[in-house]
Amino acid sequence: MNSNLYRTETAISSLSAHSLAWDTWAHDSLTALGMAAIRNPLGDRLIHFINNPSSEKALEIAMMLTTRLMKDGADFGKAQHSAYSALEYWNGRHCLHCHGRGVMNFEQEECPRCGGTGDRPIPSEFNEVAKQAVSMLIEAENWMENQLRKRMAPAGASEPAYQVNVATVRGVSQIPAYPETE
């Protein structure tokens, strides 16, 4: 189980850091991404864009976003402009001051620019359609990460109980936060 947990955590952190490289992944990781991509084409395009950014891949994402925004009632011009603006924000959304960590130093001082979130604030000039497009991009990326986590879990494994580390109790290193059900 330890190697599976490490593999899943590595996959999730690579996706979050926008550093997914196809040549470094095992077959099962690629299969998990492919299975998740079937249900989420926008997430699939985002993963491909993260791996190898290009104007063609950005155009595909913008077209998908424009189509979704138009289905939600936005006119073509506003939807297209919002899609491009949202993609530009999403691609560089991590705070440049703290490099997306949310903290400034070893003492974990909160970043004064992003307030500890690690992300730049959404520009105030964004209209509601652009904010919706940013939300769609972030949701698609998070969905792909969650699907990868689920599909990389060992067969038959249940979610582990939430555990709290307690250093003050002698002889006890972890206490389940809620009782296990049998």
Written description of the protein model:
With 182 residues, this protein is mainly alpha-helical. The protein has one domain. Helices cover 53% and strands 3% of the residues. The protein contains six helices and two strands. It has a two-stranded antiparallel sheet with strand order 1-2. A hairpin with an 8-residue loop joins β1 and β2 (174-176). α2 crosses α3 and α3 crosses α6 (128-152).
List keywords for this structure.
single chain; flat; two-stranded antiparallel ribbon; mainly alpha; 182 residues
What's the story with the biggest beta sheet?
2 strands, antiparallel
Total of domains: 1
- The number of helical segments is 6
Beta strand count: 2
What class do helices, strands and sheet pairing give? mainly alpha
Sheet-strand content, in percent, reads: under 5%
Query: How much helicity do the residues have?
Result: 40-55%
Specify the overall morphology.
flat
Low-confidence stretches: 1-9, 161-182
Strands side by side in the biggest sheet = 1-2
Radius of gyration, in angstroms, nearest whole number: 20 Å
Q: What is the succession of H and E elements? A: HHHHHHEE
Distance between the termini: 20 Å
